[in-house]
Design brief:
CATH class: Mainly Alpha
Strand content: 5-15%
Number of strands: 9
Helix content: 40-55%
Number of helices: 12
CATH topology: Cytochrome p450
CATH superfamily: Cytochrome P450
Amino acid sequence: MEELRPSVEATVGSILDVMADTGEVDVMADLAFPLPVSVIGELVGVPAADRASFQPLVRAGSAGIEPFVDNAGVVAAMAAQDEMRAYFVDLLDERRRQPADDLLTDLAEARDHDDALTDAEIISTSILLFAAGFETTTNLIGNGLLALLRNPEEFERLRADPDLTPSAVEEILRFDSPVQVNARTALEPAEVDGDKVEPGQMIMVLQGAANRDPEQFEAPDRLDLGRKDNVPLSFGWGAHHCIGAALARMEGEVVFRALSDRFASIELTADDVPRRPGITLRGLAALPVRLEPVTTR
């Protein structure tokens, strides 16, 4: 991931150039989506011309993991999943004909004790990596910038001490996690806080609540970019720890450092910032801001 940092920095710089020239932008549409979809698209092997079309598909598909979803949402989620699967079936066929320097080609060629991955495994893994690789990081950028704008003293703290950026990303992940809810299925009998859990039983894990646990975090509702011993559960834990955690952290560090370096001020231009519906994936529908580049001071 660190080898990718210069490329990500260059991409962020190009995006911020355009934003600076525009002056008033929607951060979600102009930065928070284009950056991570470009990075993960290059890694997985999704052509640039096809990436934007995945945003509505991924959002429709992710509705299926919400705890509360109506029949229409389930049908739309299944249709979106089918469309994404059909796309990757074709892309996999193309990579077998013409291998490229990307993850999809590597998966197609992967061997585990001389046993090839099945096409279904390759396709499901590619969809998961690509979709999760931009959707959650999009929310990290949007949620994080909103938190900084609503806590200007912390934003100024970051401007004054850029080395605080890695700690700031961890605190943003804790303060307003892009993933709030998850589910786990018990494989063996267990006891959790006095409650018995039987094999096959599904458990809802409230990561967002855990990240605000007052027994774990002092003043949990306060944004503190220098918080000590900060270990949020935003990326899960154990065997289910997010394999894209290092990439998301690196992208977050690059974005927040660049924003604090590049702009003398970033101001919200709307009193109410709209959030997307749902509670599993927490993110903004839009983040309209007015920018003042440092060079105009």
